[in-house]
């Protein structure tokens, strides 16, 4: 058993106003935590963090830098320094015409996806992964109903090479182009769409995957709340050394029965059989939820493109619930920040384990996120299921299985409650779990990780508060050694 006692956790927050139309916020966060005894050793963990947010008339910048430093005082394991960083920027180059998105991130993914999933303090082999994205795009409305959108996404992924050869992952590059010329239905409309995506797996047997398609979409507005569409098109795809040409047939629906409920769904017959995507959102003044279903090809670099698309985190859900009362995004961001601050720190909700594969996969996923809000509490629920299998045509000879298969299925859930008990005291509780099972040559490999966190926060002054809590984690596996943790932590926070 691992017994952990925390020394201190301190957070500083500051706000600097550059100009009336431009604001920057810098949030340093440094922590010293988890003095622990594990297998005859004592572990000390320090976690500094710096968050930067900038907003201006023609740009937005969000950045985060943090690191976990793990020191094994009796040297039973090697000390670890685990840096993480991310930055995302949006800019307007030519108003109502040309825009730019860019992002970069540094993270440490587990070299073995069946290692413990919930905490850096549980020992595991890691590899450093960096990703860079540059995405210029053109978005212009010629009339209120006629628009043109072109987007070019470029993603470069680089993985560390200091691991054993059997666990190394190839570097990848993704380049995609998408074009849509759309006439809204009045009551008939149309859309002409073209897409091309090429992923190169450097130094891999599956050296390239290229997907290209052209679609024509005819739409009809049954009424102002319901739009139906039919899809026809062709696609040409290259997977490894195999190239094929196929037709595309499908249906689309867009339904907005009220200003608070939104459904976008599509289903298509594709070269890999049937594909679909469903995004359903609903909100009220005291509740927000979204359901996301998809079956589509996925490659390693797509994680940077899609990482924020689900909208299932607490901030996104509260922002959605408040969007009617506070339609101005800048004003609403302040309201959301204050609401989260009053409730105390929010425990992280469970998310799928990042698996960086060196070949293309077909991914089936489902995710449900719900937040219930009241003046005194927030209850957040999250469920997800995802299966990733090697991408190939069902009517063609099976592709050779990779020697190290990253095919897997994952199931996870979390429940987080933040409750304000008095004017100065709040409590937080969270339970979560993730199960990952191998597929392909990894069939039969299973790892399950569970965790529970309980904490309390007392406001000392309007800008200062004290935090104390405990955490329990359990990881069981038939692949790696089991691990467990019992931790206590405390801290002081000051905002200025």
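Q: What amino acid sequence fits the structure above?
A:
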């Amino acid at each position: 058993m691992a017994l952990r006692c925390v020394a201190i956790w301190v957070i500083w927050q500051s706000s600097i106003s550059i100009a009336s139309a431009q604001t920057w916020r810098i949030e340093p966060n440094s922590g010293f935590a988890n003095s622990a005894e594990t297998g005859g050793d004592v572990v000390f963990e320090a976690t500094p963090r710096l968050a930067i947010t900038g907003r201006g008339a023609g740009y937005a910048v969000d950045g985060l830098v943090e690191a976990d430093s793990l020191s094994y005082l009796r040297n039973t394991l090697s000390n670890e320094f685990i840096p993480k960083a991310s930055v995302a920027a949006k800019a307007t180059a030519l108003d109502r015409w040309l825009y730019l998105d860019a992002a970069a991130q540094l993270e440490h993914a587990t070299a073995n996806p069946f290692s413990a999933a919930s905490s850096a303090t549980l020992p595991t082999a890691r590899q450093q992964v960096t990703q860079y994205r540059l995405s210029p795009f053109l978005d212009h409305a010629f009339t209120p109903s006629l628009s043109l959108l072109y987007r070019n996404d470029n993603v470069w992924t680089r993985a560390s090479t200091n691991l054993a050869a059997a666990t190394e992952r190839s570097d990848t590059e993704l380049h995609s182009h998408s074009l849509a010329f759309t006439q809204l239905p009045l009551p008939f409309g149309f859309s002409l769409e073209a897409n091309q995506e090429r992923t190169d797996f450097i130094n891999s047997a599956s050296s390239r995957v290229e997907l290209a398609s052209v679609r024509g979409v005819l739409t009809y507005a049954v009424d102002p709340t319901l739009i139906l569409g039919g899809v026809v098109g062709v696609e040409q795809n290259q997977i490894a050394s195999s190239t094929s040409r196929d037709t595309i047939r499908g249906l689309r629906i867009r339904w907005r029965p009220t200003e608070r409920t939104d459904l976008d769904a599509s289903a298509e017959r594709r070269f890999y059989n049937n594909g679909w995507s469903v995004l359903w959102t609903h909100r009220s003044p005291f509740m927000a939820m979204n359901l996301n279903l998809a079956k589509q090809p996925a490659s390693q670099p797509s994680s940077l493109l899609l990482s924020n698309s689900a909208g299932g985190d607490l901030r996104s859900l509260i922002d959605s619930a408040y969007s009617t009362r506070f339609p101005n995004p800048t004003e609403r961001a302040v309201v959301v920040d204050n609401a989260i601050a009053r409730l105390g720190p929010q425990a992280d909700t469970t998310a799928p384990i990042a698996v960086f594969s060196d070949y293309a996969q077909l991914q089936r996923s489902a995710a449900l996120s719900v937040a219930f809000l009241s003046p005194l509490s927030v209850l957040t629920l999250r469920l997800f299921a995802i299966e990733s299998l090697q991408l190939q045509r069902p009517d063609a000879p099976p592709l050779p299985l990779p020697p190290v298969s990253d095919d897997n299925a994952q199931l996870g859930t979390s429940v987080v409650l933040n409750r304000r008990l008095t004017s100065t005291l709040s409590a937080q509780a969270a339970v979560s779990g993730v199960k990952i099972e191998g597929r392909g040559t990894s069939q039969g490999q299973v790892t399950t990780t569970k965790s529970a966190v309980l904490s309390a926060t007392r406001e000392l002054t309007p800008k200062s508060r004290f935090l104390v809590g405990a955490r329990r984690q359990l990881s069981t596996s038939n692949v790696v050694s089991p691990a467990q943790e019992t931790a206590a932590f405390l801290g002081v926070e000051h905002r200025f």
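Q: And what stands out in the fold?
A: The radius of gyration is 24 Å.
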